[in-house]
């Protein structure tokens, strides 16, 4: 998971790289001196601690807070009409969802609601990715299983022929 504080051109370049690479990017766009922004920013900042450990190995997840003065430099996002604006962008900018228009029930601007929203979107993406990995693993497993069965059949033939030979030997001894 990457945490970005975007307030200059260098930070915008990093964010644009993540967007262009198809990362799941969650953004809080704020304006200095805005009352609702000042109330929301500490809740958003708490995501670093609450999600940091759980998603530490997910390099496709980005949580960013963005100063409104640099928004015009960011690729593929609509210009905000009000502040704060909270947006999810994914699939190289082809999927954009505003927090207020999301499918979660509680849209309060607190850490728990932000976590529910993020986890809902990230788990969908992980599910899609894991399904493609599972189908690849199944293909590999079938190939490996076929190889094992071939060797196993050969082994069974040897065992059964050995049993058959033992039976013949015992029968011969009894006849003599």
Characterize the structure shown.
- The chain is α/β, with parallel strands linked by helices.
- The chain has one domain: Glutaredoxin, CATH 3.40.30.
- The protein is built from four helices and five strands; from the N terminus they run βαβααβββα.
- The chain has helices spanning about 10-20, 35-45, 45-50, 110-175, and strands spanning about 1-5, 25-30, 60-65, 85-90, 95-100.
- Strands 1-3-2-4-5 form a five-stranded mixed sheet, sandwiched between helices.
- The protein starts with a strand and ends with a helix.
Notable features of this structure?
5 strands, single chain, 176 residues, 4 helices, globular, Glutaredoxin, alpha/beta, 5-stranded mixed β-sheet
Q: What is the element layout, followed by pairings?
A:
Elements: E1 2-6, H1 9-20, E2 24-30, H2 35-45, H3 47-52, E3 61-67, E4 85-90, E5 95-98, H4 111-175
Parallel strand pairs: 1-3, 2-3
Antiparallel strand pairs: 2-4, 4-5
Coarse shape: globular
CATH class: Alpha Beta
Largest sheet: 5 strands, mixed
Helix percent reads 40-55%
Short structural summary:
By secondary structure, the chain is an alpha/beta fold.
């Amino acid at each position: 998971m990457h945490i970005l504080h975007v307030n200059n051109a260098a930070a915008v370049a990093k964010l644009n790289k993540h967007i262009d690479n198809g990362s799941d990017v969650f953004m809080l766009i704020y304006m200095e001196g805005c009352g609702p922004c000042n109330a929301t920013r500490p809740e958003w900042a708490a995501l670093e601690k609450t999600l940091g450990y759980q998603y530490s190995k997910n390099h496709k997840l980005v949580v960013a807070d963005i100063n409104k003065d640099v928004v015009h430099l960011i690729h593929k996002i609509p210009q905000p009409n009000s502040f704060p604006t909270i947006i999810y962008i994914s699939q190289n900018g082809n999927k954009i969802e505003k927090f207020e228009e999301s499918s979660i029930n509680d849209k309060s601007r607190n850490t728990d609601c932000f976590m529910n929203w993020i986890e809902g979107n990230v788990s969908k993406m992980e599910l899609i990715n894991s399904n493609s990995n599972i189908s690849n693993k199944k293909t590999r497993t079938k190939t490996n299983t076929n190889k094992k069965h071939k060797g196993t059949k050969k082994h069974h033939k040897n065992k059964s022929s050995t049993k058959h030979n033992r039976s013949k030997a015992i029968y011969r001894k009894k006849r003599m």
